[in-house]
Every structure is written in structure tokens, then in C-alpha cells.
Amino acid sequence: MAHATHFVRRFGWAWLDRAAIALSGLCVVHCLASAVLLAMLSAAGGLLLNPIFHEVGLTIAIVLGAIALGRGVMEHGYVMPASMGAFGLGIMAGAMTLPHEGGGGAETLWTVIGVGLLAFGHDLNRRAVI
């Protein structure tokens, strides 16, 4: 536990928001690449198109959001970053209910919008802490 405390004292909590923003960027790349490559990979399948990949990714996003955005509310007292992040997570969760294939890209569009709002919430949170 002493190592974790030392890390937090030295680097603060903003690293968690930066990591979440980076993961949001990876999610956008995955969504857009999956949409473009879907036709090429439809016969082969693959892990990146497997629904469990999306469910695990959303779970990680929810956990990181709860920790980083919740910590921000406790530290700086602003609810807006957490609200924006929660709104983005809700859109991402809603996008998972849309058809993955043959949906006209609606799932990808709503996922990218949700990821963007989540990243914006993390950025607001990071800026409020500084």
C-alpha cells in the first residue's frame, strides 16, 4: 500500500483520467476500423468483432469512469465532469443494444459519440483537478 500512496502523492490522480482518455481513443480507433474492415473480416470473424470484446471494454470503461470521475467529484466538488462521463457511458451502453452488422453504422456512430462524451468528461475532470 505504501507504493500506491507514494505514486499518488508524486503523480496525483490526473494520470487516471489521461489513461481513460487514451483508452477512449483506442475505442474510437477500434470502432472505426471495425466498421471499415467488417466486410473483409466477415468470413474470418475474429476477436475484435466478438461481442464479448465490447462487453468487457464497456465494463472497463464503467470501472475507470466510476473511479476517476467519482474521485474527481470528491476532490474538486464539480459534478459536471462525472455527469458528462456518465452520459457518454449511457450512450455507449445503449449503442451495444443496436445491431452490430447490417445496422447501417448506427452502432458505430453512437458508440463514437458516447466515447467522445466520456473522454470530454475525463478531460473536464483532469482540468478541474489541476
TrEMBL record:
GO cellular component: membrane
Alphabetical list of InterPro entries matching this protein: Mercury-R_MerC
MF GO annotations: mercury ion transmembrane transporter activity
This protein's UniProt keywords: Membrane, Transmembrane, Transmembrane helix
Pfam families in the cross-refs: MerC
Transmembrane parts of this sequence: 20-40, 52-70, 77-96, 108-125
Official protein name in the record: MerC domain-containing protein
Organism name: Sphingomonas liriopis
